[in-house]
Specification:
By secondary structure, the protein is α+β, with helices and mostly antiparallel strands. Helices cover 16% and strands 36% of the residues. It has a five-stranded mixed beta sheet, with no helix packed on it. A hairpin with a 5-residue loop joins strand 32 and strand 33. Helix 8 crosses helix 11 and helix 9 packs across helix 10. Keywords: DNA-binding, Membrane, Phosphoprotein, Signal, Transcription, Transcription regulation, Transmembrane, Transmembrane helix. GO terms for molecular function: DNA-binding transcription factor activity; phosphorelay sensor kinase activity; sequence-specific DNA binding.
Amino acid sequence: MKALRIVFMLLTMSVLIFPGKAQTCWDDLEFKQFSTPEGLPNSMVHQVYQDRDGYIWIPTFYGLFRYDGYEVRTYKSNLYTPGLLVNNNVLCVEEDYSHRLWIGTHEGLCMLDKRTGKMKKLKLGGVSKQRLNEIHVTKENRVYLGYIRGMAYYDEMQDTLALMTRKNCRGDVPESVNIQTLFEDVNGDLLIGTWKDGLYRYCIKENTFLHYPPLDEENSVLALFQDSRGVMWIGTSGAGLYKAHFSSDRKTVSFEGYRHDARNVSSLPSDYIYSIHEDLQTRSLWLGTREGVSVMELADEGKFINYQESGSKHYLPVREVNTVFRDRSGLMWIGTKGAGVFHVDTRKRSFNVIYPRGNDKSFTDLISTLYVEENGALWIGMGYGLDYQHGGKKVTLFPSKRPYHISYSPLTREVLLAVHDEGMIVCRDGQIIHQYKTSNCGFVPHDLVYLVHEDRKGNRWLCTYKGLGVRYRDGREYCFNRLSGADELLGREMTTMVEDNDGSLWLATNNNGIVHVTGDMERPESLQCKNYCMENGLLPVNTPLCFLLDRSGRIWVGTEGSGLCLYDVQNDCFKSVHKEFNLPGDMVGSMQEDNSGNLWLGTNQGLAKLTISGKEKGRVRIFTVADGLADNFFNQNASFYREGTFYFGCSRGIVTFNSEVVEEKQADISLCITDILVDGRPLEQMPDKNRKEITPFTPDFTDRLVIPASYSHFTICFASLTYNRPQQNKYAYRLQGFDADWHYVDASSRTAYYSKLPAGEYVFQLRATNENGDWGDVREMEISIEPPFWATWWAYFIYVLLAILFMVLIWWEIRRRLLLRNRKFLQEGETDKVHHLKLQFFTNIPSDEEKFLQDAVACVNRHLDDPGFDVPQFVDEMATSRTTLHKKLKSLTGLNTTGFVRSIRLKAACRMMDENPNIRISELAYKIGFNDPKYFSICFKKEFGMQPTEYSMKSGKNA
């Protein structure tokens, strides 16, 4: 109750004491324009529509535009995209539940597949004019189309458009009728507004049309809308606004009308109503008319608040309004004929602003300090002067001096003031009762006092231009800059302080960091100091601005440059947590803690609520001028908190609010990947073949991205689809497998760029906040970086095959040379040449194998003339097994056992013919163990390529 009383008194003072006009929400709406100067390519707007992903689509007289809150993407036929649309005069759009955007133009229908980016043209047969005025997708995902010459639907099975006629529909079918608008009511029926033919109903389940009696002589329906109560509203051409009352069987209807009355400023501004929508936040009906926007509260039917270019106290720089629309976040959009698009946030403001000098928003004197007494008395320090206001009493003190701080003594019930060059001033009931200066006391080091702090024991500490001063409760007075033996840190310029739970003091200096004072506070000569500054690495910056001791005993410091810092007890230093919590700006000038333990921070980019405990620990909620704040920059130490009510000072007044009733918007984040550029080229501009290698889908529907080795870099563009204050959004991204941590960026840097990544598999992760600082879920996209051809798996497979082939060739060459050497060894047949042959050919043959080969040759030579010498005998004499003998002879000579014996015999024959060229062939055959001279000749020719007689003749000639 006490808090409510204080709030009431403050609000009363803001109205009574500070002359000013109380404003309703309708008087204070802030319309934001988006037209050609702001980047909209065309200002002749037919419709504003939000798709299921959150994009805003704007059909205009010269193209279709997609808006993501930052940039516009154009869809129209031109030099770069010839034939994209059947006509650039786009009248209407609507998305179905299959991610297809249906586009109605002046010359027919197009369908954009949002997943693939492919555009398809569909022509309706049976009509001469293809102008499409309206598209409606039912809850059953059926697409109905309103043409200038009748009504049609899309046949999904046949992939064609079907005209609705008496041949395929029952009832009074609107054949060749100019369809203006379609609306699906709560019963699932389609209400159809036409030009000159009034109102129809189409019962989809019965496939039956019903034509209602005329509304008026004009009988032209331009807009249909059913409000949240179920009431159907009809906007007409020249006959104003109608409220329709249908019978229970919906076969009959009666109308209640509202018209323009030139004598009544609260009547409709025009009888031409182009569009109708409801604002759920204010429970009001919004009308787009020929003469601006008209708003009617549902609780006060028939009374209209008109926003017009002229003739109304509610100014809106536009005349004809073609469309009004409410998006998912509650923003109201206004599409105009010639002035582009407007949007406005109609939420009730949770913040009040007190303008101390009574001149409202023109007030520019900064609020430097403030204090609210228990009785509701308000002290306000401004750029120059200090005001005391209580009830009807107002007193201004020191009108030409700058006040720095206001505090309160619970022991003496006195207010303590720190004013430039005025020492310490003690006040009661708005009156000065004593002033302490260097000339009349011993505890003021300098008359420039920044802050007065009364500790738990009633001692008063002063932060001044020349250091610290203290006046103890027992009357002792000290100036530390003049105290013998005092630490020189206590003589530096001090701006603010805080007392921690153990009674020690933390002092903020001007550009010299923080000084921690410990010891017996009652004995000044015993005090010890420690400096926390950039130079010793114990504080990120040397410009502390404010302190806060929270209920857990933690010490928070607001700084200029490093934002919010927290004292780390374990490491005895201050660490910046500003980026960790994703707080706005880089300065915290004032801080307060609410009853729930949340921190409220006045920054240079708005007011931030930081949750530091519980399930939502780390959550940040950001408030700006769009939420009703007077300014986004909050001044140093200009804040106060009492019994649930906050007061924060800025350069345009005092922002007051109750922390329990500040409206909390739930996070509604539509995070989209708006574009992907590969080597600087958008996907949509690539040839289809190249694009499909990367992804077959549009950027926002891409879950896996493949980057071929021929490309060196890629860029991912993204946006959180919010439209009231999109610059407030924050983003974080990282590439798992490459980035060690998240990259945090603001709305001006909505791209992630990667270049020359190693080949491999990665996962791109993306997060975003909405305008209020609430973080949404992580979105992921797989990214595969393909290796160059020489580093692919099949290339490595080929490398392995080549390596194996090379080793086989080496082995084959070694084996070939081995066989050649052994054959030469056998051919020579002389054991005294073994050593010579070994040096020449057998450097790779182990000595044990060479000995085995010599023994084998000698064994055969011993039985050279024995035709009965066979393999078993050979095995026995070699003292080995048949298999072992075969394997060894095969590996050393390439011959099996029989072939080896035959080879030794034939080479012996050559030696004998060398010694005796005239020897008879039959005799020679018997000498080397052959029983058949003819068989001997065959074997010899096979071995040496000539008959024995030929060899004998050559040997004779050589001899």
